[in-house]
Each structure stands twice: as C-alpha cells, then as structure tokens.
Amino acid sequence: MSKTLKKKKHWSAKIQECTVSWGGSGELIAVLEVRGGAEHGEFPHVGHVVSEALVSHAGRFPGSGDVLLEVNGTPVSGLTNRDTLAVIRHFREPVRMKTVKPGVCLKPSDLRPSGYKAQ
C-alpha cells in the first residue's frame, strides 16, 4: 500500500498547434497529404509532408501520422477525407491546425460533441 500511483496526463495536454503556409506552390493539399477519415473508420491524419514547401509561422510542422483535430477552429474529427480536404481548401493562407501525436490513447467518445448520446 505504500506504492505511489502515477497520475496519467490527459491526451488533450499533448495537443500541438501550428500555423503554416505554402507560399506560391499551389494548394496546401499538394504539400500536405491528408489520409484517413470516417469512411475508413479512422480519424483524419497527416500523410506525406513536403517540409521544404511549407513555411511555419508558429509551432512545429505537423509530422507524418499526426491526428488532425482542427483546421482554423473547425473540428475535423469524424469527417470523411473529402470533407476534411474541403474544410482545408475553404480557408486562405496561413492555416492554423491542431494535431496530436499518434500513440496517445484517443477514444471516439473523447471527440464527440458534448450533447451527443450514443444509440
């Protein structure tokens, strides 16, 4: 009984926010691939990143595999890949993104809207 229990930090403490733009190299989609989505039963996440074409204004570049939570304040968890890309294309440069590293335990109930009830 003398062992001390370690209190685990909540996954939301590990959220990273970054602001990126991509210069004159076309669309963000060309330099930052978005994978996953609700149609695959996954959260949207970052695929391949061409870091030479991105400019970071704040925070660190999103890494390959990072789970995408928000784009300019719009939650994208639970959206299809196509809808996530539409949200990203809707905003002009720079784009503010909130991501979390993979491996952090995220339950689907953590990202549901507060008034949502499962049936």
Question: Which features would summarize this protein structure in a list?
Answer:
119 residues; 27% strand; Pdz3 Domain; 2 helices; five-stranded antiparallel beta sheet; alpha+beta; two-stranded antiparallel sheet
Overall spatial form: globular
Overall CATH class: Mainly Beta
The main β sheet shows up as: 5 strands, antiparallel
Provide the low-confidence segments as ranges.
none
Which class of secondary structure composition applies to the elements?
A: alpha+beta
The domain tally reads 1
What is the end-to-end distance?
Answer: 41 Å
In what range is the share of β-strand residues? 25-35%
Summarize the structure.
Keywords: Cell membrane, Kinase, Membrane, Transferase. This protein is α+β, with helices and mostly antiparallel strands and 119 residues long.
Characterise this structure.
It is built from 2 helices and 7 strands, in the order βαβββββαβ. Helices cover 12% and strands 27% of the residues. It has helices at residues 28-31, 81-90; strands spanning 16-21, 32-35, 45-49, 55-58, 67-71, 74-75, 95-100. The chain has a single domain, classed as Pdz3 Domain (Roll). The strands form 2 sheets. It has a 5-stranded antiparallel β-sheet with strand order 4-1-7-5-6, with no helix packed on it. Strands 2-3 form a two-stranded antiparallel ribbon. The mean pLDDT is 77.
